[in-house]
Amino acid sequence: MPFVLPDLPYAKDALEPYISKETLEFHYGKHHQAYLNNLNLLTEGKPESSKSLEEIILSSDGPLFNNAAQVWNHTFYWKGLDPYGGEPSGIMLDAIKEAFGSVAGFKEEMTNAATTQFGSGWAWLVLDAGRLKVTKSSNADLPMKHGQIALWTIDVWEHAYYVDYRNVRPKYVESVLNHLINWDFVATNYTKR
Description:
The protein is mainly alpha-helical.
């Protein structure tokens, strides 16, 4: 059965002014859709067509891995954004303080990972051996390939921010970290570990 593009959890203009409707039309409607179309072409009529996205990611490499991982990464990224995002509370506030000293410490580490990722990639908040950690990955790489549990991510491929921020990746990262993190999503990922 072909993979399908999941609906966004909000309207395409809901993340404005931090991420524009135009960006979502290209990023979600064109880039995410293209990865999905490629994945369906690569799996059509093959044993992988009956596997889950995660099974394909963990058992493949090359174009099949790249497209499957990018479908997963983007779906995860959209869920991690919230038009009403703000600061962590409850269990996540405690966990962030324990791991990074403060929310500001967490944002500093995420900013560093996101802005120093050379070329295309992702910055991640993960659980690694039960500990919160910030990591980064290039291209389609993702935490599950390294035995880590993804809690949240920010996409730092240029198509994620170029329409709105041109080449100023740090401003995009700052906007997302300060206004769009879906902390309920992060907490759900953290507590289901």
